[in-house]
Predict the structure.
Amino acid sequence: MTNRLLILDGHAIIYRAYHAFPDLTDSTGQLINAVYGFSRILLKSINDFQPKYIAVAFDHKHGRSKRLESFDRYKAHRKPMPDDLIPQIPMIKKVVRAFNIPQFEITGFEADDILGTIAKIMARDNEKKSQAEKVLTTIVTGDKDILQLVDDGNIHVFIPGRGKFSHDVEYDETEVREKMKVRADQIIDLKALMGDPSDNIPGVKGVGVKTAEKLIQEFDTLEKVYEKVDELEVGQSEQTGKFVKGRSKNHSHPVLKGAILKKMITDKKMAFLSQDLATILLDAPVDFSLAKCVIRDYSKDKVMEIFDRYNFVSLKRMLPKDDFEISVQDALF
């Protein structure tokens, strides 16, 4: 597939860059590490993938998301954006504008939901196209939550490495299974059981990664896991004589027993709430047009001016050729 839409997960890449380059400053002492890192990942992605289309999605700083409305402790453990990163955000958006790259940002929605919605739109469009016309959507991010969107024929996720100990990985369905031990479409239910401390998604208290993996691998979905839990709960009630809702044919399970079973029963409501919190929305109100995302002439002068101001010498060598340079090259050869 030669047609590719590259979408950058703006704030995820910004944070990744901020932590990767902690000491880079301009002549005034202003920290510019995130500007440099974001620009480098952007240019490297363009050079490596040679996409036909490109866009960037950002979180919106205003408005409560649907997740916060349903669970006010969602992301409660997250620290506020560092003071020395805040002024870099408009600088990064200025770089994106200089490259003529569309930016998507919606009040009350996270960038994940924008990415998910655009990826879903593209997947639906692919159903109407021939194989040669299909577009592979590749999401560039540092957030493994996005792996739930992977769909080999339509959506890949690219996570840049962090130096020599962490390599770039483009996740297809095979890579996701190797990394997560479950299918991409099962990641939501995996997190519903084990939770996610980074987003303060509670999951089932006391159920860890290995237990969650075993249950999803065996039962396929959270709903089917709880069908078994309900069956075992009935069996326990029959044995104790305290309460009988029906009759279970099998009162035992190698994982769902003892303390684990009790925790699963106690936190059932929290498990399904966690499932909702972990689910990336696919219906955000995105005004998306693929035609507007075509990589077109960028303002090389504006980009060079920004890179000169911050002394990004190495990035200047990574810039793609503009139309004038291409026309000169074509005339010579």
Summary: The chain has a mean pLDDT of 88. The CA atoms of residues 139 and 157 lie 5 Å apart.
